[in-house]
Specification:
about 280 residues; 4 helices; Rossmann fold; single chain; Tumour Suppressor Smad4; 2 domains; mainly beta
């Protein structure tokens, strides 16, 4: 039985990106017993991911984080950087994209034969319980999750509970992050070095940062315990990986932890890490 592969790509009409997509499709078309489907990120749906042996994401990190919530914890994902910064300063860093057009054929063979390295990435997720008892789970986030007032000019007000912590806060919002996510948004808004976070705890711990309005200082933590937030905002939202918004009202209870399904991300030249 042949492999069933889905290719999701960013559609931006840049010449170098379009050439990368065409090249990748030509290689896939030449492989016997391989069925592949090409989908633009803007047109892909959850149903496209069902029953796939491999998902290939072509673009940059933003492309991967914007669609990987559709991928379950069993399907391997292969990231291909269509415009690497190593070749062009205007290109993409592509931290999660360990393959390029130049190495794609070789990397694809490793992926299909089970020879690629498998990185099991924990994902952070929020569970929202409304005052009427409705329960909604956000998409799992590989990088970060924001919880804040939908009106950016207004403070985020909430009760926060975790372990021995039980207090009411007013802040500019709560930003949660996985270990690998510290290289994204959260690493630019807070100095996490003082937390002495260790990579060996990355499967159980996550970061949290809030800028408390009373002091103007960041309240930071690196914890394995779930964070419970009770909203005191007329309207707030949870936003995983800067993508879909999940709205809630005053009195809603939001639980944040690493309970999301893991992501099986392939790499070919070494395990992913920040060291």
């Amino acid at each position: 039985m042949g492999a069933n592969v889905l290719v999701v790509y960013k559609k931006n009409h840049e010449r170098i990106h379009d050439e990368s997509i065409s090249f990748i499709e030509s290689i896939l078309s030449d492989i016997e017993n391989l069925n592949h489907t090409m989908r633009a990120r803007e047109a892909v749906s959850r149903a496209d991911f069902i029953g796939r042996d491999l998902v290939i994401v072509v673009g940059g990190d933003g492309t991967l984080t914007s669609i990987c919530h559709n991928v379950d914890d069993q399907t391997p994902v292969m990231g291909v950087n269509s415009h690497p910064r190593t070749n062009d300063s205007e290109g993409s860093l592509g931290f999660y994209m360990d393959s390029t057009v130049d190495s794609f054929a070789e990397d694809l063979e490793a992926a299909l034969s089970g020879q690629a390295m498998v990185n099991i990435l924990p994902r952070i997720q929020a569970t929202i319980t409304s005052t009427s008892g409705n329960i909604i789970k956000t998409d799992p986030a590989v990088n970060d999750l924001l919880i804040a007032n939908t009106h950016q000019y207004a403070p985020s007000k909430y009760r926060i509970q975790r372990g021995d912590v039980d207090e009411r806060q007013q802040s500019s919002g709560l930003l949660f992050s996985t270990w690998l996510g510290q290289g994204a948004w959260i690493g630019h808004v807070a100095d996490l070095a003082s937390l002495n976070a260790q990579q060996q705890d990355s499967n159980s711990h996550y970061f949290m940062v809030a800028r408390e309005l009373a002091t103007g200082k960041e309240a930071m933590s690196w914890s394995s315990e779930a964070t419970i937030i009770t909203s005191d905002m007329h309207r707030g939202y949870a936003v995983p990986d800067g993508w879909d918004e999940y709205h809630f009202n005053r009195g809603a209870v939001i639980k944040v932890d690493l309970g999301g399904p893991v992501l099986k991300l392939l790499s070919f030249r070494g395990k992913l890490g920040l060291n």
